[in-house]
Structure formats: structure tokens, C-alpha cells
Write a structure and sequence with these properties.
mainly alpha, 5 helices
Length: 99
């Protein structure tokens, strides 16, 4: 019996995630194991499981300040003339660091 209660109900919100090959394969296998469901439904169920079981997260979430959406800084390359231009080399370095 699957550990996760997989349910695909609810209004979808499109998110993009990148997984390594092994994790993607395991996700597809688990979707089949859980009753030929979708990988989206498995991801949703796994996240809900973590959200419900992580005691530190549940405690952290009780603080109303943590529920506010953080302000994001605006990045406007055209108006900041003093900043050095972004080159392909810098972009590749940042891209590599994220992986």
C-alpha cells in the first residue's frame, strides 16, 4: 500500500521544477505504484505529507510574520547604469552554481 494518499483534486497552479534523472524515474514509478496516477498528484501528496509531518515547519508557520509574502527586489538592468553588464560568462557561472 502506498505511503502517500494520492489525490489529484483541486485547482491546479502551474509550477516548474527540475529533477535529476533518478528522481524523475522514481517519481514515475511511484505514480504507477500508487494506482496509475499522475506525477503531479504524487508531488502534491508528497509535499502535503511533509507539510503535515514537519513539526518545526508547523511551529514556524504559527508566527504571522512568516506568513507574509517576502518583498522581492526589482532587478532593472536598464536603469542601473553603474552596474557592470551581465555577460554570458557570469550567467554560466550562476547557472552552474544552481545545479
Amino acid at each position: 500500500m502506498p505511503l502517500l494518499r494520492v489525490d489529484s483534486k483541486g485547482k491546479p497552479h502551474i509550477l516548474r521544477a527540475q529533477l535529476d534523472g533518478n528522481t524523475a524515474t522514481e517519481l514515475k514509478l511511484y505514480a504507477r505504484f500508487a494506482g496509475d496516477t499522475t506525477t503531479d498528484a504524487v508531488i502534491k501528496a508528497a509535499l502535503l505529507h511533509v507539510f503535515e509531518q514537519d513539526k518545526e515547519f508547523l511551529e514556524w508557520k504559527k508566527n504571522p510574520d512568516n506568513l507574509k509574502e517576502p518583498e522581492r527586489s526589482r532587478r532593472n538592468r536598464n536603469h542601473n547604469k553603474s552596474a557592470p553588464p551581465v555577460t554570458g560568462q557570469h550567467h554560466e557561472t550562476a547557472k552552474t552554481a544552481i545545479r
